[in-house]
Design a protein that fits this description.
Length: about 300
């Protein structure tokens, strides 16, 4: 079996017919059928059900297709890692939507400004982070985990993902400077029920196990679902909406327009770095990880000094 055979199967599934797939692959339909037949004979299975309406995967075909997707994902990782990468420096970070992660990444890029590199930084849904870490499509993932969120911890363990705690965080309300609640020293969950609550959408998975916001569900009559940090900032600055996050205001782009106020709760969270089990991190990934740790060490020291 070959990677090309897997690519052909993927194209047939995507197109729903041999003829359309053959056109996209620039080969004859007879040659495509022969490739699939050879693979079926080699594995001793039937991959596709064929009919006048097109093709569909058999039970064995569905199982094989799942494996081929994983293999093709790995091929894509290898190609992205080495193609057009003159110096061999590469880093891929998938993260929830955090200013501090973006700031550390910017500092990381500046440290390598004289070098050739291939760096990726993607803010995305929690499930996408976990999936890409699991299949080694990225070096590390950055998410926040509630201290007693045993369901998420079990899920990560079942998917062979290692978790490293690099910092702690307590829930803070983010809102605009000048918001009706912006003069409070602390804010209760109940006092925010009249204001629109902004949450990051998690697609089909909703707000349950994979939500980003640092608190149990707030009983607000108004909610706004978003998918990027720019929209969050615009809404916070322009409206009386709010969200709940880490309280870390590291970004130089804020300029005091957004404030964070402690939320009255006993919940504890940890900023966590995810890696695939038994993965040896690259030099660049270790450097980025150490920069994240340094940020939280500095924040911890600063908070201790303020208490004293």
């Amino acid at each position: 079996m070959t990677i090309k055979q897997f690519q052909y199967i993927n194209e047939i599934v995507k197109c729903g017919s041999f003829s359309a797939a053959a056109n996209n692959l620039f080969i004859s339909q007879s040659n495509l059928s022969l490739v699939v037949k050879d693979l079926e004979e080699e594995l001793g299975i039937v991959i596709f059900n064929r009919s006048n309406k097109g093709v569909s995967l058999t039970a064995d075909g569905k199982e094989l297709y799942g494996y081929t997707l994983k293999i093709l994902e790995q091929v894509n990782v290898i190609e992205n890692r080495y193609k057009n990468n003159i110096s061999g420096k590469a880093l891929s970070v998938y993260t929830q939507h955090y200013d501090f992660a973006a700031d550390v990444f910017a500092d990381f890029v500046n440290k390598h400004s004289e070098d050739g590199f291939n760096f990726v930084f993607k803010e995305t849904k929690t499930t996408e982070i976990i999936k890409n870490v699991k299949y080694n499509n990225c070096d590390i993932g950055v998410i926040i985990i509630k201290d007693n969120d045993y369901a998420l911890k079990r899920f990560l363990k079942a998917n062979h993902i290692s978790v490293m705690k690099i910092g702690s965080a307590s829930p803070h309300v983010f809102l605009r400077n000048g918001h009706p609640m912006s003069n409070r020293k602390e804010i209760s969950i109940s006092s925010m029920s009249q204001f629109p609550f902004i949450v990051y959408g998690q697609g089909d998975y909703g707000e349950g196990l994979f939500k980003e916001e640092l608190t149990e569900q707030i009983a607000s009559k108004k909610s706004i679902e978003i998918y990027d940090r720019a929209t969050l900032m615009n809404l916070l600055i322009s409206t009386d909406s709010f969200t709940v996050g880490t309280g870390i205001m590291a970004s130089k782009l804020n300029n005091g327009n957004i404030v964070s106020i402690p939320l009255l709760t006993d919940e504890n969270y940890y900023i966590s770095v995810l890696t695939a089990e038994n993965t040896v991190l690259s030099v660049e990934a270790m450097e980025f990880l150490n920069m994240l740790k340094e940020l939280f060490n500095n924040l911890s020291t600063k908070n201790s000094e303020e208490v004293l």
